[in-house]
Write a structure and sequence with these properties.
heterodimer; A: about 100 residues; mainly alpha; two-stranded antiparallel sheet; B: about 475 residues; alpha/beta; six-stranded mixed β-sheet; five-stranded mixed β-sheet; about 40% helix
Chain lengths: ~100, ~475
């Protein structure tokens, strides 16, 4: 078994995700099977391979990392707040934060 | 009246006043009204926005002004792409009432080029799926065979074009989500190189993989749409400054003498016999066109699904952290903030999304990061290297788009791993960042479409389109 019930509970807590008992059991079994499949990557020796986080080479993004710091209009605050679940312009309102 | 419209056909009909933009759009809406209840391909229609655009186009025609490249062309947009003022749900309950305050750059460019946005198309929730059955708003049916899936995740965008409910559409591709539904619905569908089209306004699933691209009824129209949406956008730092070629202008160039790689690894076990026959016949077409076929090896192909489902879920678990019931979308009330987060996310996300968040969080979590996430990124390097090595020897690579023809609704929903394996031929190009197109390559039993996939080197879209166009002209779709 690659992933235990406790692992799923821990991860769901990290992701702030409520799971029902049924979901917990189902996902554990399914993810276990997926991780079993993923285990085939260990057939490859990657000790001398660099990890690849994204595909663009430096010269393709050089301009992006050194752009001018310009002020551009972005008057969307009102629109954004209008569609929030509990707006209190100019704020978003949330439940009281209680210590964990 | 809506069937068989092309971009050039629309322009010609408008310029010669055979039809007005308003009439044409009204006719498409009438067809949508008739056919969409069965197909479930459109989620939201935007007639008011379409009306404003057709008024602009009709005014240009009345004033005998020059018409922009996509003047009056009715298009549809996948519901993971932001449209100002038009509900954008990502196929999820968690965004069931979300109305974006801005347009995606691709949408803005389509409209600036004269296209008429008819509405938003159904898709797998947050683009996670290969059959469109993961939508919170019900599955889409394949218009060619309504007991079958249209493919996913851009199933709605493929279906509306195949059914004649839009002349073209935008989809998104993270591991095959444009190319596979294009294949399943029997139409050309293209993913440009990573960085070719701005992702600004594309609601993120896996940022290092996500790409926006077009569906249309012919390769020329795919080229026309790509040309409009491609190019640098200051709002997306990963969009490149590389010049956008005149893709349509390049289409007619001869393909004779081009070297095409056939990677052995894409013709292994698990491939449907009917698909194999069609693809082999498709490869013969290229031979007749004077291309040189070269057998090549891409030795890490078999590891692509495993690497992909680590990287994509890891990025998804991070990107989807934003759905917390505070700024937009669903909120399930609770007295405490953290339990409000948990309940909102637990109630708002569907099964596949939750499964991927759990898997993605797990592979990134302390103690597992090196074994899974880092390993996946290293294998991604090897897969990208396979492509670089191949493109030293060949100009393009030919493969099937999907190992199987469109499957029946409900056939694979109980087994996520089996569903993931349907992406086996498409995820490689996603990881490597190269462009790929799926072009129709006949139908099994004259009913189930097969797609042939053409990969080119990074920013080699023009060559990919040329080959697809030549294949289409040579009768590839009727094999």
């Amino acid at each position: 078994m690659k992933i235990s019930r406790e692992d799923v509970l821990r991860v769901a807590e990290l992701a702030y995700l409520d799971l029902s008992e049924d979901e917990l059991q189902r996902y554990r079994a399914q993810i276990d099977e997926i991780l079993e499949y993923i285990g085939k990557l260990n057939e490859l020796d990657t000790s001398h391979v660099e990890p690849m986080a994204q595909v663009l080479s430096d010269d393709q993004t050089a301009d992006a990392t050194l752009r001018e710091d310009l002020i551009v209009p972005c008057a969307v605050a009102e629109d954004v707040l209008k569609h929030a679940p509990d707006p209190e312009p100019p704020y978003f309102r949330v439940p009281k934060v209680i210590e964990r | 009246m809506t069937a068989n419209w092309t971009i050039d056909g629309v322009k010609e009909a408008l310029a010669t006043k055979k039809v007005s933009a308003r009439e044409l759009t009204a006719d498409f809406y009438a067809q949508i009204k008739a056919k969409n209840p069965e197909l479930n391909a459109f989620l939201t229609l935007s007639p008011e926005r379409a009306r404003r655009q057709t008024d602009r186009i009709d005014a240009l025609v009345a004033g005998a002004k020059a018409l922009p490249p996509l003047a009056g062309v009715p298009v549809a947009v996948k519901d993971v792409i932001s449209t100002r003022g038009i509900k954008t749900t990502c196929g999820s309950k968690i965004l069931q009432n979300y109305i974006p305050p801005y347009d995606a750059t691709a949408v803005e460019r389509l409209e600036a080029a004269g296209a008429v946005i008819l509405g938003k198309t159904n898709c797998d929730e947050f683009a996670m799926g290969s059959s469109n059955e993961n939508s919170a708003y019900g599955p889409v049916k394949n218009p060619l065979s309504t007991d079958r899936v249209p493919g996913g995740s851009s199933g709605g965008s493929a279906a509306v074009v195949a059914a004649g409910l839009a002349v073209a559409s935008l989809g998104t591709d993270t591991g095959g989500s444009i190319r596979q539904p294009g294949s399943f619905c029997g139409i050309p569908a293209m993913m440009g190189s990573y960085g070719r089209v701005s992702r600004y306004g594309l609601i993120a699933f896996a940022s290092s993989l996500d790409r926006i691209g077009p569906f249309a009824n012919n390769v020329k129209d795919v080229a026309a749409i790509l040309e409009v949406i491609a190019g640098r956008d200051p709002h997306d730092s990963t969009s490149t400054t590389a010049a956008v070629p005149d893709y349509r202008g390049e289409l007619g160039k001869p393909v004779e003498g081009l070297r095409l790689g056939i990677p052995k690894e894409y013709f292994g076990q698990g491939m449907d016999m009917g698909v194999r026959k069609k693809i082999e016949a498709g490869i013969e077409v290229f031979k007749k066109l004077g291309c040189e076929l070269v057998e090549i090896r891409m030795p890490h192909t078999d590891y692509a699904i495993a690497a992909y489902y680590i990287i994509a879920t890891a990025e998804a678990s991070s990107n989807l952290a934003r759905y917390d019931g505070v700024r937009y979308g669903l909120r399930v009330d609770d007295e405490a903030l953290l339990s409000m987060y948990r309940k909102t996310r637990g109630a708002g996300f569907g099964a596949e999304v939750k499964r991927r968040i759990v898997l993605g969080t797990y592979v990134l979590s302390a103690g597992y990061y090196d074994a899974y996430y880092l390993k996946g990124q290293k294998v991604r390097s090897l897969i990208a290297q396979d492509f670089r090595d191949a493109f030293i020897k060949v100009d393009a690579i030919l493969t099937p788009t999907s190992p199987v023809p469109p499957f029946k609704l409900g056939e694979r929903t109980d087994d996520p791993l089996q569903m993931y394996l349907a992406d086996i031929y498409t995820v490689t190009g996603s990881l490597a960042g190269v462009p790929g197109i799926s072009v129709p390559c006949g139908k099994i039993d004259r009913r189930l479409p097969v797609g042939l996939q053409i990969f080119g080197p990074a920013f080699g879209e023009a060559r990919v389109l040329q080959l697809a166009h030549a294949f289409e002209l040579a009768g590839g779709a009727t094999l």
